[in-house]
Specification:
12% strand, two-stranded antiparallel sheet, 8 helices, 63% helix
Length: 268
């Protein structure tokens, strides 16, 4: 045990650190002998190897207490970071929309601004929906998300053939507009899990960071594949890009029809 003593005119303060050999003292009773019937107070702070904490304030009237661990905020919300990554990698409609943006935009500067606009937009509606300011995901939202992917695929195909389109002229605005819509979808997924009451804001932040981490990994992977194809078979790049655009549109058309049919069926 290591101790330090501080003396003041009207008080005496002592600090001591004890390293416990046990795996954990969670739930154990702590007793300070000799504290009974005194005016002394003892503050006990316990930390385990995982960063969880428990604290007690003991005095002459209560010289013992039980250590009840309180998980740290970081440890509580870490699973939400993983949940965000899992959601983006299982949300194929979101991924295909991002891929469509990559096909629509040329130039690193415009690409960064476009993806950043999409990120800012869906983070905004994700936060507002989580706190009940705007509606969360629904069957209508999911149908509109599928339709947004279809519309982007059509615009990307037109851009491939050199046709001028609204999306090719204003990709950042399109990314922001549809990003707001996709944020409602992310909020619907988060609503199924819920947020911890004490660390709701931190959990929301970690979930959003997980989405962004997964999105960046996907973008880097897609760009790397494009570079490899350009280096190995330059002539195949354009046909492969066009066929991928058609494939995105086909999936999106199926999702739109399927979700719209389900939406109509539930409303009848």
């Amino acid at each position: 045990m290591k101790g330090v003593e501080y003396r003041f005119p009207e008080a005496q303060v002592m600090y001591a650190t004890v390293q416990c050999p046990n795996e954990s003292l969670a739930g154990e009773k702590v007793v300070v002998e000799g504290l009974e019937n005194t005016i002394l107070e003892t503050f006990v702070l316990y930390k385990d190897r995982h960063g969880n904490e428990a604290s007690l304030l003991l005095s002459g009237r209560q010289s013992s207490g039980q250590l009840i661990l309180e998980e740290s905020a970081t440890r509580t919300v870490q699973p939400y970071f993983r949940l965000g990554i899992e959601h983006i990698f299982t949300g194929y409609d979101h991924l295909l929309f991002v891929l469509g943006l990559l096909f629509l935009v040329s130039g690193w500067r415009k690409l960064i601004l476009t993806v950043s606009g999409f990120t800012f937009a869906h983070a905004t509606t994700l936060g507002s929906s989580t706190y009940g300011l705007t509606p969360a995901g629904s069957s209508t939202i999911e149908t509109l998300i599928a339709l947004s992917v279809l519309m982007l695929a059509v615009e990307a195909a037109r851009n491939h053939f050199g046709q001028t389109s609204v999306a090719s002229k204003h990709p950042i605005a399109i990314a922001i507009f549809f990003g707001l819509l996709h944020g409602f979808g992310f909020a619907g997924a988060l609503a199924e899990t819920g947020l911890p009451e004490e660390h709701a804001l931190a959990a929301l932040l970690f979930f959003n960071l997980g989405i962004e981490a997964g999105q960046l990994l996907f973008i880097m992977g897609a760009l790397l594949c494009g570079r490899m194809i350009s280096a190995m078979a330059p002539a195949a790049k354009a046909p492969l890009r066009l066929s991928t655009t058609y494939l995105i549109g086909s999936f999106a058309a199926y999702w739109t029809l399927d979700r719209a049919t389900g939406l109509i069926a539930t409303s009848i």
